[in-house]
Write a structure and sequence with these properties.
about 220 residues; binds flavin mononucleotide; alpha+beta
């Protein structure tokens, strides 16, 4: 089948604005829970878009590792990465980002959530708590990788991995690499999109206005 013939019809009831939560963090929690129940392999995988000081965009997938919905201030979406990576360089120059979740649990629904906001680093303690909760192999992996730098071969990584395993025998967690940590995207807008028939999809955008969330329906 050619790409031009690849398309799906979305056969679920329209999204009723009366069913939307007033707070987009609550709406996100409801849809995330549905995506998890649908058995999606990585519902917390999200596309992270950044841009450098010249506005050159870049997008890649990262894993959502925390949502601070209950806080009054500093609410946001947390991911972890290498602070020397290309994405970190973009965020140093231009601390704003967009996130996109795509949950394709057809036949029930196809949904996306878009989030945009300002980005800050999480505290060293928050990074440490998360880093030390990771499997040991992932801790060593973080130490091994100068993320986004050119390397000569896979052997470079595997040699470094063996060295680190020898340096840190036993089960004790490794210290956090000084070049690694979390970022929090603090949303100023959310969009919840649900596929409908004949491309008349449902879209609802939440925007933060003077501390309150305004909801608008958008044309598909
Ligand atoms: C499912 C999935 C999850 C990923 N999760 C992360 C993550 O949480 N953190 C991360 O730094 N990279 C993650 N990656 C790798 C990134 O997509 C990307 O290759 C890497 O972060 C380098 O991006 P950059 O060069 O733009 O900084 C993930 C990739 C996939 C496919």
């Amino acid at each position: 089948m050619s790409l031009q013939d690849l398309r799906q019809s979305y056969d679920v009831p329209p999204l009723d604005p009366a069913d939307l939560a007033a707070d987009p963090f609550d709406q996100f929690a409801a849809w995330f829970s549905a995506a998890q129940s649908a058995g999606l392999r990585e519902p917390n995988a999200m596309t992270l878009a950044t841009a450098d000081a010249q506005g050159t965009p870049s997008a890649r997938v990262v894993l959502l590792k925390g949502v601070d919905a209950a806080k009054v201030a500093d609410r946001g979406f947390v991911f972890y990465t290498n602070y020397g990576s290309d994405k970190a360089s973009d965020l140093d120059q231009n601390p704003k980002a967009a996130l996109n979740f795509h949950w394709d649990d057809h036949p029930r629904a196809v949904r996306t959530v878009r989030i945009a906001g300002a980005v800050t680093k999480v505290s060293a303690q928050e990074t440490k708590d998360y880093f030390q909760s990771r499997p040991r192999g992932s801790q060593i992996g973080a130490w091994c990788s100068n993320q986004s730098q050119a390397i000569a071969s896979r052997a470079v990584l595997e040699t470094r991995q063996r060295e680190l395993e020898a340096q840190h025998p036993g089960d004790a967690p490794l210290p956090v690499p000084p070049f690694w940590g979390g970022y929090r995207v603090s949303p100023i807008s959310f969009e919840f999109w649900q596929g409908q028939q004949s491309r008349l999809h449902d879209r609802f955008r939440y925007t933060l206005e003077q501390g309150a969330w305004r909801i608008d329906r958008l044309a598909p």
